[in-house]
């Protein structure tokens, strides 16, 4: 007889499946409120007891009090930060992953998972123009992807300088994502911050920074961004990548948000320089329509990454003691993690079942909508573009508004369940920002948002 916690209660199982069915059938997914709604003071008080609370009761508290206090990141009205728009098939398969307790740590335990995830990683590596033999693993998110890749970059650089403790530096632009600065601080690596014209890191800017630096020999890597978070700018990947190849510098490309646009027919050319990358990240949980949390981390030479990152212990030797390289592919060896959810499978399943062409058109929809939005703003009396649209991010200004007025407007849109749009700072000024990712975000919604700014 199973322990009571491990018995399946069919009736309650149906209640959970009903809840999931209801969520999956929402079209469109409503926004809900996040912290804009008060959670009733004692809503969850007393739920944790010695004998347990009936599951129906806890589910009801979740449904009525907690779920509305989360802005649905998969709503087409979620246009803040970087949204997430998982396909229905990716959500469905995420339930398979959850219900199967699927582990994705090593080849020994999980070759079925690894084989499928590697198929998806190979698709991404191929789309990026990386050579065959490239590979890596799915990790929890872009921040962990960047930290993992930069750990390898640091240690490879130190090895090249012949000193495993050498004080190396990594060149970045001020527009690199906040996780890059955090990763360098964790790794005790100083950044060489390269000054840019108009926020785009170019080969010329890098060369000028290195030429003017008295200790340029300590710079062992360069980080480029393929789609900056604030403005969607794609750095000069071709120029930077070819420079790094010629000068034996590690070239890391952070495409967490924008990397998906390599699939676009109008913007794909911006990503050609990805083929030079030593490491590259792109988040399926952003613009590749998979559920949180999922980052694809790829290396040009995975064996180099494995040497740096694989954890070693007597109880793990069995994972590495194999004569056959092909059968020694442990996702745990390529990132800062060990135990690992099979988090690449929902993306893999969605890619297989929806087909690549659907991915291309879904990515293209947001790029086209961003361009349309920019035209509407350019033709408006009360609004103006702050800068040209970068991929699917639109920065714009409401003439005469200060930070308080933008915040009030943002709160009002959420209160009225129209959209979740948060302002950002651009060169010190508070401005409006739309991050478009969901292919079901409509021109009508954008127009309504822009019109809502007409009033003072
Ligand atoms: C360019 C870029 N890099 C890294 C990240 C961090 O990704 P995550 O939030 O998955 O850790 C983001 C997140 O928005 C991003 O836009």
Q: How would you describe what is shown here?
A:
With 456 residues, this protein is α/β, with parallel strands linked by helices. It folds into three domains: 4-30 and 33-70; 96-356, Type I PLP-dependent aspartate aminotransferase-like (Major domain) (Aspartate Aminotransferase, domain 2), CATH 3.40.640; 358-451, Aspartate Aminotransferase, domain 1 (Alpha-Beta Complex), CATH 3.90.1150. The chain has 15 helices and eleven strands. The strands form two sheets. Strands 1-7-6-5-4-2-3 form a seven-stranded mixed beta sheet, with helices on both faces. Helix 8 links the parallel strand 4 and strand 5. Helix 5 packs across helix 6 (178-187). The longest helix has 23 residues, at 356-378. The radius of gyration is 23 Å and the shape is globular. It starts with 9 loop residues before the first helix and ends in a 5-residue tail after the last helix. 43% of the residues are buried. The mean pLDDT is 96. Residues 82, 141-143, 146, 177, 179, 225, 229, 254, 256-257, 283, 295 line the site of pyridoxal-5'-phosphate. Pyridoxal-5'-phosphate binds next to helix 5.
């Amino acid at each position: 007889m199973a322990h009571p916690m491990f018995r399946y209660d069919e009736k309650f199982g149906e209640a959970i499946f009903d809840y999931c069915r209801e969520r999956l059938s929402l079209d469109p997914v409503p926004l809900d409120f996040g912290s804009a709604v008060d959670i009733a003071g004692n809503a969850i008080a007393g739920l944790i007891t010695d004998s347990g609370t009936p599951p129906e009761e806890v589910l009801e508290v979740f449904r009525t009090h907690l779920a509305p206090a989360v802005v649905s990141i998969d709503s087409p009205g979620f246009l803040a930060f970087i949204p997430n728009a998982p396909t229905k098939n990716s959500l469905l398969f995420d339930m398979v992953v959850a219900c199967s307790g699927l582990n994705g740590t090593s080849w020994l335990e999980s070759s079925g998972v690894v084989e499928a995830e590697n198929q998806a990683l190979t698709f991404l590596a191929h789309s990026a123009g990386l050579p065959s033999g490239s590979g890596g693993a799915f990790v929890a998110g872009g921040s962990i992807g960047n930290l993992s890749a930069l750990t390898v970059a640091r240690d490879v650089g130190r090895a090249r300088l012949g000193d495993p403790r050498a004080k190396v530096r990594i060149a970045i632009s001020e527009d690199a994502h906040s996780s890059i600065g955090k990763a360098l601080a964790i790794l005790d690596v100083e950044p060489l911050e390269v000054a840019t014209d108009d926020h785009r890191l170019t080969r010329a800017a890098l060369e000028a920074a290195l030429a003017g630096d008295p200790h340029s020999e300590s710079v062992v890597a360069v980080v480029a961004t393929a789609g900056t978070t604030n403005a969607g700018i794609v750095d000069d990947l071709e120029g930077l990548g070819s420079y790094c190849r010629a000068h034996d510098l590690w070239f890391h490309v952070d495409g967490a948000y924008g990397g998906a646009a390599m699939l676009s027919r109008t913007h794909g050319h911006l990503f050609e320089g990805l083929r030079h990358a030593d490491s590259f990240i792109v988040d399926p949980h952003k613009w590749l329509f998979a559920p949180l949390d999922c980052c694809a981390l790829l290396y040009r030479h995975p064996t180099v990454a494995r040497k740096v990152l694989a954890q070693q212990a007597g109880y793990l030797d069995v994972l590495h003691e194999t004569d056959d390289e092909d059968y020694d592919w442990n996702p745990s060896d390529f990132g800062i993690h060990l135990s690992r959810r099979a988090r690449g499978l929902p993306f893999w399943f969605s890619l297989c079942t929806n087909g690549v062409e659907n991915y291309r058109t879904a990515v293209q929809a947001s790029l086209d909508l961003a361009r349309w939005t920019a035209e509407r703003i350019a033709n408006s009396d009360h609004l103006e573009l702050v800068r040209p649209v970068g991929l699917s991010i639109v920065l714009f200004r409401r003439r005469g508004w200060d930070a308080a007025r933008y915040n009030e407007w943002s709160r009002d849109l959420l209160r009225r369940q129209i959209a979740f749009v948060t302002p950002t700072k651009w060169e010190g000024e508070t401005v409006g920002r739309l991050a478009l990712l969901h292919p079901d975000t409509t021109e009508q919604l954008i127009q309504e948002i822009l019109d809502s700014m007409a009033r003072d």
